[in-house]
Write a structure and sequence with these properties.
Elements lengths: L1 H11 L3 E10 L5 E12 L3 E3 L5 H7 L2 H22 L7 E5 L2 H5 L3 H12 L6 E6 L7 H13 L3 E7 L16 E4 L1 H5 L5 H16 L3 E4 L5 H9 L4 E2 L10 H11 L1
Parallel strand pairs: 2-4, 4-5, 5-6, 6-7, 7-8, 8-9
Antiparallel strand pairs: 1-2, 1-9, 2-3
Helix pairs in contact: 3-5
Bound molecules: guanosine-5'-monophosphate (2 copies), manganese (II) ion (MN) and sodium ion.
Sodium ion binds next to β6.
Length: 256
């Protein structure tokens, strides 16, 4: 309960910050964008990682104002980089969206208002939802997702392969990116089987006209395997951990 009221204060008192994990083109190693990841800069305890407060935020509903702030801040930051640096003009930003946000009745209004306030081009925003969020309220979720795609915002299924068994539903969801969960990438160099699973996901994505991103790339061997599977995009500790705004900006500048 104490942590809950502290988190409530943290949102109001702007103790939340975003880190940005770079995403690269796997062949050219060119920077293509970032995933925004929230951190809590606690006045006494220092930086608290998101897995220590996101679950609480989800249980208490605080994820809605928190998530709306993350969306606003990531769009504002991207727009500011795009205005300042030519090398940032075609970069995208990925934002994790929680179930309670997506299911809330004013989610589209919030998105529209943030796009209007920040003036970011919709095509450079990627909303990341997890597979498990697609199981509930299917019809209504499809409707909301379709409206998001109509705005030209990109939609990504995060942690793909871990949460949803019925592949037959996949074509019904108006998403345009599959992010292959890191559990598949970790094991890709430990044997043939995961290689073939990733290969199948690449084929599936192509058939459904979706892009593929590999997450959690940690080794050269994994990178080489993903290159030979023609997975176009990736992120992971091999390239970079999530960066502070300052370090992310240095990376953009270094690309120009
Ligand atoms: O970097 P990392 O430890 O932050 O992320 C841990 C988990 O927290 C991941 O599952 C990630 O998706 C989640 N997470 C990080 N930032 C956000 C956010 O802004 N919103 C939501 N809903 N989840 C986030
Ligand atoms: O659930 P989501 O995919 O949004 O989670 C992002 C999480 O993955 C963050 O906690 C981020 O720090 C973490 N992450 C990013 N790259 C790697 C990696 O190469 N290895 C591991 N173990 N975690 C990673
Ligand atoms: Mn994510
Ligand atoms: Na993930």
């Amino acid at each position: 309960l104490e942590l809950e009221s502290e988190l409530r204060q943290a949102i109001l008192q702007q103790q939340l910050i975003l880190h940005y994990q770079p995403i690269f083109c796997i062949n050219s190693l060119e920077l293509v964008g970032f995933e925004a990841l929230v951190r809590w800069q606690h006045p006494q305890r220092g930086i608290i990682p998101s897995d220590e407060f996101i679950p609480l935020a989800e249980e208490t509903g605080l994820i809605v104002p928190l998530g709306n702030w993350v969306l606003y801040e990531a769009c504002r930051q991207l727009k500011s980089w795009q205005d300042k640096f030519p090398a940032a003009q075609s970069l995208s930003v990925g934002v994790n969206v929680a179930g309670k946000q997506l299911y809330s009745s004013d989610f589209l209004d919030t998105v529209d208002s943030i796009m209007a306030q920040t003036q970011v081009d919709a095509g450079y925003l990627k909303l990341e939802i997890t597979e498990s969020m697609l199981i509930k309220n299917t019809e209504r979720v499809i409707e909301v997702l379709a409206k998001i795609r109509q705005r030209n915002i990109q939609l990504c299924i995060d942690d793909f392969g871990t949460g949803y068994s019925s592949l037959s539903y996949l074509p019904k969801f108006p998403v345009n990116i599959l992010k292959i969960d890191r559990s598949f990438i970790i094991a890709i160099d430990n044997g043939k089987q995961n290689y073939e699973v990733v290969q199948a996901v690449v084929t599936l994505a192509k058939a459904l006209n979706m892009k593929v991103v590999a997450e959690g790339i940690e080794t050269e061997a994994q990178l080489n395997n993903l290159q030979s599977l023609a997975v176009p995009l990736g992120q992971g500790f091999l390239f970079s951990k999530p960066l502070t705004v300052e370090l992310a900006q240095e990376m953009i500048v270094a690309q120009s």
